[in-house]
Structure formats: C-alpha cells, structure tokens
Amino acid sequence: MKHLHTLLVFILIAIFIYQSFLVLSANKRAPRPIKISSHILYALVIITGAWMLMQLMAVNAPVQWVFAKIILLIAAISASIKAFNAQATASQSKVGIVIAGIAYIGIVILAYVKPDNLF
Prior knowledge:
4 helices; 119 residues; elongated; single chain
C-alpha cells in the first residue's frame, strides 16, 4: 500500500506542476480530464493514507507527523482550488500556487523525516 500511495502522490504533484505551468505561462486552465483525474487522485491518496494510518495506529506507532500532513494537505487542496479557479485573478492564482507548493514540500519532507515528537 505504501508504494501505491507514493506513486499516487508523485502523479498528483506532477499534475499540480502541469496545472501551475499552464496558469503561470499561458494563463490557461487545465483540460477537463486533468481536473477530473486530480479529484480522483486526491480521493485515492486520502483512502490509501487512511489505510496506512490505521495500520500504524494498530501497532501504537507515533503518528503525530501524519496529522501535520493532513493539515498541510487540506491547505494544499484549498490553495489549489483558488489558484486554478477560472474566476481567479493572476495574483490570486500565483499566491495559491505558492501556498500549495509550500504545503506539498512540507508534506514530502514530513513523509521522509517522520519526526517522532512533532507536537
């Protein structure tokens, strides 16, 4: 399950970079299949992450860093929604992309470091 989750995350980040490139370079929005696939990938990432969280909690592993990742994922999703909205101005799109990018970087760092005592 870990490998599937990691693969889904990398695909999701690649789609985010593609959508960001479209918005920043040509001020265009992603085609409908890309938007639909990103929604499906978000759902699959959440499902596989919840499955792995249940396995970690079953063995009493420290999972504080997972809750920080969940908060960052919510921030990334909400910033992406604003950044890729058709009615968003150029500055709103740029700020949304930066916030979502920082959140994704934080998620990846937490995934690799897995600090035991985050809170």
